[in-house]
Design goal:
A hairpin with a 4-residue loop joins strand 6 and strand 7. It is built from 3 helices and 7 strands. It is elongated and about 85 Å long. Helices cover 22% and strands 17% of the residues. It is an alpha+beta fold. It folds into 2 domains: 68 residues, no CATH class; 66 residues, no CATH class.
Length: 144
């Protein structure tokens, strides 16, 4: 990924040469260098590369691609939620809710949740486990 401040965008074809640190500082009106106390060096705020110790050579720094460390592999740790069970009236009265025919309302539904952000809804906990297992198998197949 190149820095957005690396090239001047103009229709006259003047954008063919990359802009130096000095050019970008003049165009943007902001300081593009910062001091790092840990490494005791100056660095470019656009590409995070260290600048040469020679201040004159640092003015001619051109941003290159930012090199990020590789992302760790995603682990798919799944879990299921406990069903809510009998439904009670709000307010803490302890009275169970009934449907319009007088039957007690019982919620068996359960959610399957993965550490990668995937969520699946099952009509009971066994179905949620099946959904979670299917998700892990699909992700293992895509990783190959």
């Amino acid at each position: 990924m190149l820095s957005p401040y690396n090239h001047l965008d103009c229709s006259g074809g003047c954008a063919t040469a990359p802009l130096t640190l000095a050019d970008r500082s003049v165009i943007t009106g902001r300081s593009l260098i910062q001091w790092d106390d840990d490494s005791r060096t100056w660095y470019c705020v656009d590409c995070l590369n260290d600048l040469p110790d020679n201040g004159y050579r640092a003015l001619f720094h051109v941003c290159g691609p930012v090199e990020l460390p590789p992302a760790p592999p995603v682990e798919h740790k799944t879990r299921t939620t406990e069903p809510a069970g009998y439904q009670y009236l709000p307010g803490g009265s302890g009275i169970r809710m009934t449907d319009k025919r007088g039957r007690l309302m019982y919620d068996r539904s359960s959610w399957a949740i993965c550490s990668c952000g995937w969520v699946g809804a099952g009509y009971d906990r066994r179905d949620a486990r099946r959904l979670a297992k299917t998700h892990r198998e699909e992700q293992a197949g895509q990783a190959v």
